[in-house]
Amino acid sequence: MKMAARQVRTTADDLITIRSACAEDAEALVRIEAEPADDGDWSFSKDPSTPWDQRLHKKRHWISWHAEQAGGLFLVAEMDGEIVGWICCSQGQDRWHAHRGTLTIVFVVKERRHRGIGSSLTGELLGWADEGAVLKSIGLKVVSLNEPAIRLYRRYGFTVEGTLRRSVRLDEERYADEILMSRHCPGEG
């Protein structure tokens, strides 16, 4: 699905443009993902050993795949002409799950965090889901150590559905849990 571009004011009073991702965004997204993530144990960087052209092809495919789904959406946030964040929601692929979306990522570049960009992206995506007739609920998994993300999701009405114990391997010795969260679209109880 595609969504028209909208200008949004963040909680830090920054003016950002939120729009559907397009194939031309792939290079910037791959470049941003390749930057080292120095955010602690809960941050995941992409494998730098994967060749650039493969990462670029995969990102372009991911963007077009979301655009083709009635219940899928890939949004980017731009500030001063640069992509500063993105969010993705994928629709269930079989008849038993086509009513349910999965929030696969909310990402904001490190230099622009804590300014309301992730919250603005989340609000736009959930507003789109709430207004549409395709998705009845949205689920996600979040690493238990990522407390800022958990607070964001709770603020938008997500509730804990369960925990996957030790499902993320941090290193040879340490593991983290993943928390399953879900939010029903209005009128879906």
Outline the fold blueprint.
Layout (H helix, E strand, L loop, with lengths): L5 E4 L5 E6 L5 H9 L17 H17 L4 E7 L2 E10 L8 E9 L8 H15 L5 E7 L3 H9 L3 E11 L5 E10 L5
Q: Classify the helix fraction into a percent range.
A: 25-40%
Low-pLDDT ranges: none
The assigned structural class equals alpha+beta
End-to-end CA span: 24 Å
Total DSSP E strands = 8
Helix segment tally: 4
Envelope shape: globular
CATH homologous superfamily caption of the domain at 6-134: Gcn5-related N-acetyltransferase (GNAT)
CATH hierarchy, class of the domain at 6-134: Alpha Beta
Any idea what the radius of gyration is? 16 Å
- CATH fold description of the domain at 6-134: Aminopeptidase
Mean pLDDT, to the nearest integer, reads 89
Compressed to H and E, one letter per element, the order equals: EEHHEEEHEHEE
Strand order of the largest sheet: 1-2-3-4-5-6-8-7
Structure characterization notes:
The radius of gyration is 16 Å and the shape is globular. Helix content is 26%, strand content 34%. The protein has helices at 26-34, 52-68, 117-131, 147-155; strands at 6-9, 15-20, 73-79, 82-91, 100-108, 137-143, 159-169, 175-184. An eight-stranded mixed β-sheet has the order 1-2-3-4-5-6-8-7. With 189 residues, the chain is α+β, with helices and mostly antiparallel strands. It has a domain at 6-134: Aminopeptidase (3-Layer(aba) Sandwich).
